[in-house]
Write a structure and sequence with these properties.
alpha+beta; single chain; Pemi-like Protein 1, Chain: D
């Protein structure tokens, strides 16, 4: 599927077709995460379980990196 951007005021918008929205269970109230890998634009719905998993992974990474300091602070 090839799309072009649509001008809305001073901004540009990407119109997402209804079948694609339905396939991803996205509506106008769904929060979306927007990222880039430097070459592509990545847009995905934010799901509570995905968010929890990312927070858990970030917490574990931080704890691994700073375990000794955190233990000292806890004393």
């Amino acid at each position: 599927m090839t799309k072009t951007l649509t001008a809305i005021g001073d901004s540009l918008a990407l119109i997402i077709d209804k079948p694609l929205l339905e396939q991803l269970s996205i509506d106008k109230d769904t929060p979306l995460e927007v990222q880039t890998d430097g070459q592509s634009l990545i847009i995905r719905p934010v799901r509570a379980e995905d968010r929890r998993a990312r927070i858990r992974a970030a917490t574990e990474k931080m704890m691994d990196a700073h375990d000794e300091t955190l233990r000292k602070l806890a004393k």
